Amino acid sequence: MLISDAQTFEFISRSPKQTRRLGARLGALVQGGDVIALEGELGAGKTLFAQGLGRGWGASTRLISPSYVLVRRHERPQDAQKIYHIDLYRLNTLGEIIDLGLEELFEAVQSICVVEWANRAPDIFPTDHLWVEFHWLDEYRRSLIFRATGERHTVLLRKYHKDLIGK
């Protein structure tokens, strides 16, 4: 871990498996109303992290890249919560992104939103969200920088940080 304060920390993942496990650890903590924005180059680990998050949350189906369908909904068998896996990669304009109706999904208290390629429309996100930047370090290692905005996601990030490193 290199950067750490109340709203930001960095973690170096050393393998795809570890990136999935990092997602799973966060998935065990998220709850309805949480919005997780993922940013990074192709192959940086966004989908692996989202897959882990879905598994840790308890999705009944595996999260796969929604690049061609843009939004995939997954459910958890034991309750009414849903997780929406959203991909903005193939959208070219802010208008196309707004037409997806993400505002409604972001406001749904029983839903969790995980958005890949979030940097294509950073202004659409609610003021309270968790942003994760993925950076290539080498063939296997990735830097994940977590930034929380708003009280809800700052608390989530603190819990996650404590879960990962015990502090």
Report what the structure shows.
This protein is an alpha/beta fold. It is globular. The mean pLDDT is 89. The protein has one domain (8-165): Rossmann fold. The chain is built from five helices and seven strands. The N and C termini lie close together (12 Å). Helix 1 crosses helix 2. The chain has helices at 16-27, 46-57, 94-98, 102-107, 151-165, and strands at 8-13, 35-40, 71-75, 82-87, 111-116, 129-136, 142-149.
A few lines on this structure:
With 167 residues, the chain is an alpha/beta fold. It has helices at 16-27, 46-57, 94-98, 102-107, 151-165, and strands at 8-13, 35-40, 71-75, 82-87, 111-116, 129-136, 142-149.
Based on DSSP secondary structure assignment, what is the total number of beta strands?
Answer: 7
Name the strands of the widest sheet in spatial order.
Answer: 1-7-6-2-5-4-3
CATH class wording: Alpha Beta
Percent range for β-strand residues: 25-35%
Features:
167 residues, 7 strands, Rossmann fold, 7-stranded mixed beta sheet
Topology overview:
Elements: E1 8-13, H1 16-27, E2 35-40, H2 46-57, E3 71-75, E4 82-87, H3 94-98, H4 102-107, E5 111-116, E6 129-136, E7 142-149, H5 151-165
Helix pairs in contact: 1-2
